[in-house]
Each structure stands twice: as C-alpha cells, then as structure tokens.
Automatic annotation (TrEMBL), chain A:
Transmembrane segments: 7-25, 59-78, 90-113, 125-145, 157-176, 196-216, 237-256, 268-289, 309-328, 334-355
Annotated keywords: Membrane, Transmembrane, Transmembrane helix
Encoding gene, per UniProt annotation: yedE
Family matches, as InterPro entries: Seleno_YedE, Sulf_transp_TsuA/YedE
Pfam families linked: Sulf_transp
Protein name: YedE family putative selenium transporter
UniProtKB/TrEMBL annotation, chain B:
Organism of derivation: Desulfobotulus mexicanus
UPF0033 domain span: 5-29
Family: Belongs to the sulfur carrier protein TusA family.
UniProt cross-references to Pfam families, sorted A to Z: TusA
Classification via PROSITE patterns: UPF0033 (PS01148)
Gene3D superfamilies for this protein: TusA-like domain
Name this polypeptide is given: Preprotein translocase subunit TatB
C-alpha cells in the first residue's frame, strides 16, 4: 500500500496543516506563540497532576492525549501498530528528562521554537540555532557508531500501555473540569492566571490533537529528524515539512493579527540569547540521541514503541524537577538553578553519546 | 549470493546509516535489507534511491520487510 503521507508533498502538506492548526489553537485560546508545544504541554500536565506546584502552568492539555491516541488509530488502520521495547529504556528516560530541562531553559520544544519564530519572536532564532547545534553534536556520535541497541517485539498489550495511560488522563480531565475561580477541581490543579489559564475548548483541542497525531504518524513528521537528516545525509525530505510549518504558521499569524516582531516583551519567553541557545543545545542533543523530537516520541509511543513512551515519561518527570528545583526559566529570565541543570544535563548526555558508541563491525 | 543487512529492531537513523555505509562496497550490485518498521522501510528505500539504487521488490512476512535493492545500470 502506497503511503501518500510519506512522500515529499505528503510531508509538506502535513507540516503546513500543523502550522495552520497551531495558529488556530492560539486564536481559540491557547497561550501566545504556543498553539502547540509538546514540552510546555507536558509540563502543564505535570502541573495539573501536582507533580510540580508552579501555579501558572497547570492544565491537563488534551492535545497531548490526542497526539498519542490519533497516532494509535492511524497506526491500527494502516496496520502499522508494532508493539516493541527494550532498547535501553533507562537511558531513554534520562534523555527525556534532560531534554525537558533544556527545553524549559529555552521555554519551548522545537515545535514551539518554530511557532515562536512564525509569531515574530526573534529569540527563537537563538533557540533554533542551539537546536541545530545540539543535533549536530548528536550526528557526530551517530557517525561514531552510537546506537542504543535493538528493540524487541513485545506483546500487544505492551504497545497499548501509553495510549491507555493517555486515555486515563483524558478521563481525569473529563471528570474534573475547571471551575471558575478555583485552583483545584477534584484531583486536578488548574491555573487561575498565566499560560496554564489559557486554553482552547477541550473538544476542539482534542480533535486537533487527534488529527495531528494521525497525520504525523503516517508522515513521520519530526523536527529533530529534519535537522539530523539534513546534516547527516544532506536530505531535505523532513526539512521541507518543517519549512512548510513555519511558512503557513507565519501567514496564519498575519491573518489572525498574531504576528508581533521583536526581541523584548515576547509572550512566555525571555531574551537572554546565550541561555536560549544553550538550553536548546542540550535539548537537541538529547532528542538526537533518542532518535526523535518530543512530538515524534508521542507519535511513536502511539504506534506501540515502548521506548518512546519511556522518553515521554522522562520528559514529564523532568518538567516536575525543572520547576521543583528552580531550573525552568520564566519571562523574568532563567531559573536560579538553570545553569547547574544545564551543565549536568550536558555532561550526562555527552556521556551517553560517548559510551553509546560501538565499534563498527 | 546477495548480501543481507539485518536492521530489525533498530530505530532511525540506524538502518539508513548502515545501508548507506554498506552500499558502496556491495559486490554484484545487489543488497537486501531486513527491517521491521514501516518508517525504516520508507527511509531505507528513500536513502538508497538518492544514491542511484532502486527498490526492486519488497517481501513482507510477519510484519518484517525484506527490501531488495539493486544498483541502477
């Protein structure tokens, strides 16, 4: 069966649609330049569950559940659901953890970096350069023989674990809806101000999440892969999807009056260039060593990849630590322990890259 | 005897890296690559085609794919 979505025009169409839907989600209530941000939304989920208590970033973001469940449905329909796991799970957890530490120093995943750029936030340029730098370091390890070893086929129920966890979180969201003026509803925490208090209607966010999840699963859309393939193979395939995302999000932002160019006063962002850059160096390296950007890890976990699922869990735990340990940035600048977290993360990820290199046969 | 590259279980970009590494030294202009995800199948085929090779055929068995690559004349 021909997979139209994995052709050049397929990936461009998917990138363009993600750009449009992200701008639309922002228009319908998501935070500025954050129509979709996998790192931010996982961080908000950690807050909603009380894993950290940063009061401005607590919301059970249905887009994330939509991504995983949409990917599951697409994979099942296309007979591409392949339960597998066992490729160095603890390393993948660690990479997810430090990917989040880096992303929260910059304040966004690669998707949000692109959306910030498309919204006129020029600080994103430092983040994207850092991302490319981190991915470049990752390709050096890949050239040196780095790999985390093969995964093994797993029983079906193992592949369903992450989608079921996401379905459970969705049930929690339905059972504990936000109440006006209340910071808590049942077991879930809600933000009364800040980005966590800004969200598109639940069903619209979920529907868009499902659609993006399905399309991204079929097309293998990946922002880290786009840079990696360009650097490693001089291949433009995934990169063309990334360009389409930025171009369409930019046009949609213009149309919606959401384009505000400049460095200072950008929403949910700080303007310390060096840490915007370095945060994404760490994140980019961790993504490259794990084989996918945060979005791609969600889609992979939807199609049954248990190792990608562990990376996702690592990111959510990393978000909790980032806020509990004052490593996350805020519009006021970087956190008190941000640089410490960054250095530890770089040492750990460089170590993983180094020790993960195997002698080539 | 066609050379066979076993890339089962390996996640991207490993199958592509190994295929591109193997292609220049393949004897007889034929290489078979064994993969077990659809993404790897697409990526290996795309990479080989960019290097002047062609995907002659694909065999599927129990969710595993054997890609038969041949060098363009």
């Amino acid at each position: 069966m021909k997979n139209y979505f994995s052709t050049r025009w397929g990936i461009i169409a998917v990138g363009a649609l993600i750009g449009l839907l992200a701008a639309l989600l922002q228009k319908m209530g998501n935070p500025p330049n954050m129509g979709i941000c996998v790192a931010c939304f996982e961080r908000d989920i950690a807050g909603a569950l009380g894993l950290h208590r940063a009061e401005v970033v607590q919301y059970m973001r249905p887009e994330i559940m939509g991504f995983v469940l949409g990917s599951l449905v697409a994979a099942l329909l296309a007979r591409d659901f392949r339960p597998r796991t066992g490729s160095a799970p603890v390393i993948r957890f660690t990479l997810g953890f430090f990917a989040m530490i880096g992303a929260l120093i910059f304040l966004g995943c690669p998707w949000r970096a692109l959306l910030r750029l498309a919204g006129g936030d020029w600080n994103a340029i430092f983040g994207l350069l850092g991302l490319a730098g981190g991915v470049f370091i990752g390709t050096l390890f890949l050239r040196g023989g780095y790999n985390l070893g093969p995964a093994k086929k797993a029983p079906k129920f193992v592949g369903f674990a992450m989608p079921l966890i996401m379905a459970g979180l969705l049930v929690l969201a339905f059972m504990n809806p936000p109440m006006a003026g209340e910071g808590k509803s049942g077991v879930l925490f809600y933000s009364l101000k800040g980005p966590g208090a800004m969200y598109a209607p639940l069903f619209i966010a979920l529907a868009i999440g499902l659609l993006v999840g399905g399309l991204a699963q079929r097309s293998r859309f990946c922002t880290m892969g786009a840079l990696r393939d360009l650097i490693l193979f001089k291949q433009m395939h995934l990169f063309s999807g990334l360009i389409a995302l930025v171009a369409v999000a930019f046009l949609a932002n213009l149309a919606f009056g959401q384009f505000k160019p400049g460095f200072e006063g950008q929403p949910v962002a700080h303007s310390v260039g060096i840490w915007n850059f370095m945060g994404m160096v760490l994140a980019g390296l961790a993504f490259a060593l794990a084989g996918g950007c945060p979005g791609r890890q969600l889609f992979l976990s939807g199609e049954g990849d248990g190792d990608a699922a562990i990376f996702v869990v690592g990111m959510i735990v990393g978000a909790a630590f980032a806020h509990n340990f004052a490593m996350a940035s805020s519009p006021a600048g970087i956190g008190a322990n941000g640089i410490t977290g960054l250095i530890i993360g770089l040492v750990v990820c460089l170590g993983i890259g180094f020790f993960g290199m195997r002698k080539q046969a | 005897m066609t050379e066979i590259l076993d890339e089962r279980g390996l996640s991207c970009p490993q199958p592509v890296l190994d295929t591109l590494k193997a292609l220049p030294s393949v004897q007889g202009g034929k290489l078979s690559v064994l993969v077990d995800t659809e993404a790897a199948r697409e990526n290996v085929a795309r990479a080989a085609e960019s290097k002047g090779w062609q995907l002659a055929s694909v065999e599927e068995k129990d969710g595993e794919y054997t890609l038969h690559l041949v060098k363009n004349a």
